[in-house]
Amino acid sequence: YCERQLPLETIASLTSAYIAHRFLLGSHKGRLAIGTDADLALIDLQAESELRTSDLYYRHAHSPYVGKTLHGRIHRTLLRGDTIFLDGQFAPDVRGKLIKPQLS
């Protein structure tokens, strides 16, 4: 978005609706509407921060972006409407589950 001037609508579609459709996750995923799961991330587009290894929450904490300044930062993440991540901290009772794509 910042450097490549991608419209936010394009980013939203590529990271939500397209993914839900591609992996056959069902109509309750990938969009905000009455009756859907209300999974979303709120992002501060003005924030800048240097990525540290301690910022990586996945199994193997390696990234070519460690030490680089990133533009934008996830402020809050909601799962089914409940806050599970806020200002760099996970909620103590995160209850999400891995969704495996259906193969047709």
Describe how the helices and strands are arranged.
Layout: H1 8-22, E1 40-50, E2 69-79, E3 82-86, E4 89-90
Antiparallel strand pairs: 1-2, 2-3, 3-4
Describe this protein's structure:
With 104 residues, the chain is α+β, with helices and mostly antiparallel strands. The chain folds into two domains: 1-34, no CATH class; 38-93, Urease, subunit C, domain 1 (Roll), CATH 2.30.40.10. The protein is built from one helix and four strands. It has a four-stranded antiparallel beta sheet, with no helix packed on it. The mean pLDDT is 86.
CATH architectural grouping of the largest domain: Roll
Overall mean pLDDT stands at 86
Major sheet strand order: 1-2-3-4
The domain count comes to 2
E-strand count: 4
Classify the beta-strand content into a percent band.
Answer: 25-35%
H/E element sequence: HEEEE
Q: Give the C-alpha Rg.
A: 15 Å
Shape: globular
What's the CATH C level of the largest domain?
A: Mainly Beta
Tally of alpha and pi helices? 1
Low-confidence stretches: none
Question: What key phrases describe this protein's structure?
Answer:
104 residues, four-stranded antiparallel beta sheet, alpha+beta
Outline:
By secondary structure, the chain is of the alpha+beta class. It has one helix spanning 8-22, and strands at 40-50, 69-79, 82-86, 89-90.
